[in-house]
């Protein structure tokens, strides 16, 4: 196996059954790897969006908010109600954990594809990463 990047239409990607021996097969493989890179970037941006939403929905009240709530409830001696529920926090954290695992798995697949040292596959990963970020970034700013 060559330990430098080569232009070739023959490669074995990720698994033994994914063996490419033709230009058409290489083009389809580059497309699949490009889509994997787009998926990786989408998961990354989705994870950031989920974290942002979790922090906004489950935010810790500021001292000014606590003072205002204490002034409104000055007649009662009960403690201040907590607006966040443990179940909701657990579900957000669990969702983020699943997205993290998916991101790691897809990331390792993309990394192993690049380690085939095929320049076409490398170009597919780079292009897919850029396209994925370009397509997924507006989702992050919609919040």
TrEMBL record:
The chain crosses the membrane at residues 20-40, 89-114, 120-140. Keywords: Copper, Copper transport, Ion transport, Membrane, Transmembrane, Transmembrane helix, Transport. It is a multi-pass membrane protein. InterPro entries: Cop_transporter. It holds the Pfam family Ctr. Coiled coil: none annotated. It comes from the Eukaryota. This is Copper transport protein.
């Amino acid at each position: 196996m060559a330990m430098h990047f080569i232009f070739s239409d023959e490669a074995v990607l990720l698994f033994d059954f994914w063996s490419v021996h033709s230009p058409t097969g290489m083009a389809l493989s580059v497309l699949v790897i490009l889509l994997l890179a787009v998926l990786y970037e989408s998961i990354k941006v989705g994870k950031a969006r989920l974290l942002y939403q979790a922090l906004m929905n489950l935010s810790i009240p500021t001292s000014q908010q606590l003072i205002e709530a204490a002034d409104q409830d000055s007649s009662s001696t009960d403690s201040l109600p907590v607006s966040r529920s443990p179940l909701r926090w657990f579900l957000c954290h669990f969702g983020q954990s699943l997205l993290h695992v998916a991101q790691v798995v897809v990331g390792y697949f993309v990394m192993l594809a690049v380690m085939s040292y095929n320049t076409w596959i490398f170009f597919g990963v780079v292009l897919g990463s850029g396209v994925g970020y370009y397509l997924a970034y507006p989702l992050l700013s919609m919040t």
